[in-house]
Design a protein that fits this description.
By secondary structure, the protein is an all-beta fold. The protein is built from no helices and twelve strands.
């Protein structure tokens, strides 16, 4: 069993959401408005059943999203760690999810790219490309961008 944990300081606040891999569409990887000089304390942990994770967690609003090797995308309350919902896909989730415009989306080893309702985790749409999707998506304006893995043979 693997536990995912969130470390927060008493006065930690984010200037913006960390809604995609490496924070934003520019892949900045840092939030210059956050100071980590005060002590860091463990606020909560979450056990991901028998699964583990390849993806990084993201924070969007008051929710932390993370994908698991069991094909689950999980949503946790950022402050309490209480699980809000989970969606079960048919493969492993390797990609870090992205969130925006009312959806949280991710690629899966089952060849589908999923977009879920950010509030309740219900499926809004999915798109089949035929091969595993391991890349982390980007949401920009009203578009979602992701890379696929296409194998060519002579």
């Amino acid at each position: 069993m693997i536990a995912a944990g969130i470390f927060l300081t008493a006065n930690l606040s984010f200037s913006t959401d960390w809604s995609a891999f490496r924070r934003d569409n520019n892949r900045a990887g840092a939030d210059t408005m956050v100071s980590f000089f005060s002590p860091i304390n463990l606020k909560w942990t979450a056990v991901l059943n028998n699964g583990y994770t390849y993806s990084s967690p993201i924070v969007y609003g008051e929710t932390v999203f993370i994908g698991s090797s069991e094909g689950k995308l999980l949503a946790f309350n950022r402050k309490t760690g209480v699980k809000g919902w989970e969606y079960i896909a048919k493969g492993t989730i390797h990609s870090t999810p992205a969130a925006g415009d009312g959806i949280v989306c991710f690629g899966c080893s089952d060849g589908y790219f999923y977009a879920l309702n950010i509030i309740d985790g219900s499926l809004k749409w999915k798109y089949y490309i035929g091969n595993s999707i391991n890349s982390s998506p980007v949401i920009s304006d009203t578009y979602v961008y992701f890379g696929g893995s296409i194998l060519c043979s002579p």
